[in-house]
Design a protein that fits this description.
By secondary structure, the chain is an alpha/beta fold. The chain has 2 domains: 418 residues, 3-Layer(aba) Sandwich (Alkaline Phosphatase, subunit A); 58 residues, no CATH class. The chain contains 18 helices and 19 strands. The chain has an 8-stranded mixed beta sheet, with helices on both faces. Strands 14-15-16-17-18 form a 5-stranded antiparallel beta sheet, with helices on one face. The relative contact order is 0.20.
Length: 483
C-alpha cells in the first residue's frame, strides 16, 4: 500500500519557544503528545532564514547554494520537487494549504508542484460562502449567481459581505482596513486540508503551512495567554516591526515584549495540528501516513548577532542566528509506536530523501541526520526590502552580505562555524536555549571547504526584472514584511 505524506509547517516558529523544547509557556501540548510515539530531533536546523529559500530546499532536497533561489525574480524549474515526483511517478494526489504567498501565489515554481492550491483566505466570515470556491466552480463575473448562492445559504448576509471584501481585496486592496489583511487563522487551512483529504480515494501528499506565528502576531483570545491588550496596542502602534528597531526608532525591549503574543500564536497553530492528527486517526488514515512537523525558519526578538557587529535579530531574513535556524522537527512514519530522540544535528533538506526511503520500505528513525555536515546560509536583503529598510536605517551594511554556517556534532553539543564578510565566529549549542561562543581558529577554512564542494544544480530560472504581481499579492507581501 502507498503511504500518504503530510508535511505540517509551523511558519516562523523557532524551537526555543515550543514547550517541546522546554519553553516555560505550554505552547505545544498537542505536538508534545504526538512526540510520545514519534521521533524528536532536538538539534534540527532550517537551510535558510526565510520562506522562499527554505521551502525550495525542503521540497527539493537541495541546499540553498545548490538551488540558488533567494529572490522573488528566481523560479524553480519544474520537475525537481518531491511532490511532483510522487504525483507524476506514483499517482499521488498533491495539495498545498496556506496563505504563505511564496508557495501558493508567487510564480517561483513551488505552487506548480500541487494539483490543489488553497491560498489566502482573508475573509471576515470563514464559515459563510467563500467567493474563491464559487469562482472555481462557476467562473468569474457571475455576480447575480453568487448573490443567489448567498441567499440560499445558512449565512446569506455574511456570505455577501465575503464577496464584497474579496472583490475589494483583489481590485482595490488599499480601501480595506488593516484588520482584513491580517493573517488567516490556522483552523481555516486545517479545514481545507481535512475536506480535501476526505475526498481522496488514493494516496496523497500534502503540505499545510500555518502562518499564525508570522508577524503580525494576532492570537485569538482563547490562545492569548501571555500577551493581552497592552501588547496588542503596542504592536498596533508600530509602523514596522523590523526596521523601527534596527534603525533605533524603538527600544529593543518592546520587540522582546511581543514574544508573549508570539507564544499565543504558536499555541493556536498547535491546537490545529492536534485537530488534524486526531481527525486523521479517527478516519483510520494516520497509521498509513508519514507525518513531518517542523518550521521553515524561526523568529528573532532582539537577540544580538555573534558575528555581525551591532546587529540584533528582529523577525527573520537577515543573518544566520540560532533563533532563525534552530527549528522543531517531529517525525512519525507508518507503524511507529515508540518515541525516539535524536540529538545529532539534523537538516530539513533531508525531507525528500526520507520520503523516497518510505517509498522503498527503507524508512527509519534518524533519517534527517545526513552523513555530511549540516549547512545553512543567508544572502542579505532583497531589493524591495532594502527600500523598506532605508526608511529607517541609513546604513544597511550589517544586514547585507552572504552569511554561511556549518554544523557538526561535538560531545554534548553542536558546533556551529560561521562566516560573514571578513568575519568568522564559532558557537556551541547545547539545546534550543543554551549556547556559548567557542574558540576555533580554523573557521574560515572549514566553512569554505564545505561550501566549495557544492555545485549549482541548474534548477533556477531568472526573470529579467522584478516579478510582476497583482495588487492583492503585493499587499499580502507588504503585510508579511517582505516588501
Amino acid at each position: 500500500m502507498k503511504s500518504n505524506v503530510l508535511l505540517l509547517i509551523m511558519d516562523s516558529v523557532r524551537a526555543r519557544n515550543t514547550s517541546l523544547h522546554g519553553h516555560e509557556h505550554e505552547t505545544t501540548p498537542n505536538l508534545d503528545a504526538f512526540a510520545d510515539t514519534a521521533t524528536v530531533y532536538r538539534q534540527a536546523r532550517a537551510p535558510g532564514t526565510w520562506s522562499l529559500p527554505s521551502h525550495v530546499s525542503l521540497f527539493t532536497g537541495l541546499h540553498v547554494p545548490e538551488h540558488g533561489i533567494t529572490r522573488a525574480r528566481h523560479s524553480l524549474r519544474s520537475g525537481h520537487t518531491i511532490f511532483e515526483h510522487l504525483r507524476d511517478e506514483y499517482g499521488y494526489a498533491t495539495g498545498v494549504f496556506s496563505e504563505n504567498t511564496w508557495i501558493t501565489d508567487m510564480e517561483v515554481g513551488l505552487k506548480d508542484a500541487f494539483d490543489t492550491v488553497e491560498g489566502a483566505r482573508n475573509l471576515p466570515y470563514p464559515n459563510a460562502v467563500d467567493p474563491s470556491n464559487f469562482v472555481l466552480t462557476e467562473g468569474q463575473g457571475q455576480y447575480f449567481q453568487y448573490v443567489r448562492r448567498c441567499l440560499d445559504s445558512e449565512r446569506p448576509f455574511q456570505s455577501i459581505a465575503n464577496g464584497i471584501v474579496t472583490k475589494l481585496a483583489w481590485d482595490y486592496p488599499r480601501l480595506l482596513p488593516d484588520a482584513l489583511s491580517a493573517s488567516t487563522p490556522a483552523d481555516v487551512y486545517a479545514d481545507l486540508f481535512l475536506d480535501w483529504e476526505a475526498a481522496q480515494d488514493g494516496p496523497w501528499a500534502a503540505c499545510v503551512n500555518f502562518m499564525d506565528a508570522h508577524l503580525p502576531y494576532e492570537p485569538r483570545p482563547e490562545h492569548d495567554e501571555w500577551g493581552g491588550e497592552t501588547l496588542r496596542d503596542l504592536q498596533n502602534r508600530m509602523g514596522d516591526q523590523v526596521w523601527e528597531f534596527n534603525g533605533g526608532h524603538r527600544p529593543w525591549w518592546q520587540r522582546r515584549a511581543l514574544e508573549g503574543l508570539y507564544d499565543g500564536t504558536i499555541r493556536q497553530i498547535d491546537q490545529q495540528i492536534g485537530r488534524v492528527l486526531d481527525t486523521l486517526e479517527s478516519r483510520g488514515v494516520l497509521e498509513d501516513t508519514l507525518v513531518v512537523v517542523t518550521a521553515d525558519h524561526g523568529e528573532g526578538f532582539g537577540e544580538p548577532s555573534p558575528i555581525r557587529p551591532g546587529a540584533r535579530i528582529a523577525a527573520h531574513g537577515a543573518g544566520i542566528h540560532e533563533a532563525l535556524l534552530h527549528v522543531p522537527l517531529v517525525v512519525r512514519g507508518p507503524g511507529q509506536r515508540t518515541r525516539h530522540v535524536v540529538d545529532d544535528v539534523a537538516t530539513l533538506t533531508r525531507f525528500p530523501h526520507v520520503v523516497r526511503a518510505l517509498r522503498e520500505d527503507d524508512w527509519g528513525p534518524g533519517m534527517f541526520v545526513p552523513a555530511d555536515p549540516v549547512i545553512a546560509s543567508s544572502y542579505g536583503l532583497e531589493e524591495p526590502m532594502e527600500d523598506r529598510a532605508r526608511k529607517y536605517c541609513e546604513d544597511l551594511w550589517r544586514f547585507n552580505g552572504t552569511a554561511r554556517a556549518v554544523y557538526t556534532d561535538d560531545v554534548a553539543a553542536v558546533e556551529k562555524r560561521m562566516t560573514w564578510r571578513d568575519r568568522t565566529a564559532a558557537v556551541r549549542s547545547y539545546d534550543a536555549k543554551h549556547a556559548a561562543l567557542a574558540n576555533d581558529g580554523d573557521v574560515r577554512a572549514r566553512v569554505d571547504d564545505v561550501f566549495d564542494r557544492l555545485e549549482d544544480a541548474g534548477v533556477r530560472e531568472e526573470a529579467d526584472g522584478v516579478q510582476d504581481m497583482d495588487a492583492a499579492t503585493k499587499r499580502r507581501l507588504e503585510d508579511l514584511g517582505y516588501v
